[in-house]
Amino acid sequence: MAVHSHNHAHTHDGIDWSSQLNARRRADELDAEAHRVVARRLVGTLPDNPTVLDVGCGTGGMSVALVEALSARGGGTVVLVDAVPEMLDAATGSARSAATYETDTTRATVHVRPVLADLATERPAEIAGAAQLVWASNVVHHLPDQRAAVAGLVEAVAPGGWLALAEGGLSGKFLPFDVGVGDPGLQDRLLAARAQWFVRMRENITDAVRMHGGWNVALADAGLVDVTAFSYLLDHPAPAKQAVRDWAVDHLKWYAEVAGDLLHPADRSTIRQLLDPQDPAFVGRRDDVFMLIANTVYLGRKS
């Protein structure tokens, strides 16, 4: 397990990430197959026995996929970096349990190394060394200076290596247009409120710097070449298994927590109904709940 002091936990966005532990684990399970496909794609061109850096690893959904992909091609090292001790512990446990891959003819081991670090003040290259692949998913937008954070990630990429930055895409949808209570179109109003919350979250970060333009431009400006992007779907259509309904409950609770004050009182009332296990409209028992998210990965190579 990671060695750390729990008072080290510090994020700049004001979010209590440790309280999201179980919700993040549930999301990891639903994302697992899509993550495996992405991980295989990213490690497929790396040299033998590479080092991969998973920055902002969270509870380790992608960490596990990267470990499995490296195991299948002979081994390597995965360095896990996060600022929240509970998240790092969860990721380390999951990644290490996946770190030995055996078949009748092959036994490959992946070394897993956890690092507790705040990327706004600590440089990835110094805490983790050079990596042939740096993966950072939905972490840079939580840091004060996003372009400086990208530059720090680029610094940790070994010559010829790659930065894979998962940012943007299409926000997740999970509710039908008319849920049968309240006004139709709740999903779209939730997304609009979340966008407002995001702007507010960025404004409330100490020393926040606005980042103009797209992520591909940020990668190119940081000195990377061959900058491209691809998107992948997290797609669990209705009628969905219970794990998707549970994720929808988590997701709706999150919206209500961070952006509820930006919604009309009538919508807040509707959300209370949707989150009430005693209510017929309860999200956790609906057959029309689904999960559809498009994540975009921006890729750049260090020459």
Assembly state here? single chain
Whole-angstrom Rg: 20 Å
What level of helicity do the residues show? 25-40%
Overall shape: it is globular
Biggest β-sheet strands, sense, barrel: 8 strands, mixed
Q: Provide the spatial order of strands within the biggest beta sheet.
A: 3-4-2-1-5-6-8-7
Q: Care to describe what's here?
A:
- There is one protein chain.
- With 303 residues, the protein is an alpha/beta fold.
- The chain has nine helices and eight strands.
- The chain has an eight-stranded mixed sheet, with helices on both faces.
- A hairpin with a 4-residue loop joins strand 3 (100-102) and strand 4 (107-116).
- It is globular.
- The two termini are 35 Å apart.
Question: How are the SSEs ordered, and which strands pair?
Answer:
Layout: H1 21-43, E1 51-55, H2 61-72, E2 76-82, H3 85-97, E3 100-102, E4 107-116, H4 124-128, E5 131-137, H5 146-155, E6 157-173, H6 186-204, H7 215-221, E7 225-236, H8 242-259, H9 265-274, E8 291-301
Parallel strand pairs: 1-2, 1-5, 2-4, 5-6
Antiparallel strand pairs: 3-4, 6-8, 7-8
